[in-house]
Amino acid sequence: MHNTGASDETLMLSWCRDNRHQAFVELYERHRARLLRFLVHQTGNASAGEEVFQEVWLTLIRQREHYQPLARFSTFLLGIAHSRLVDWFRRNARHRWDTDLDCAAELPAHCPLPEDVSGNRQLQAALLACLRALPPEQREAFLLKEEHGLGLAEIAASTDSAAETVKSRIRYALRKLRDCLGNQHDHA
Question: Is residue 50 part of a domain?
Answer without folding.
Answer: yes
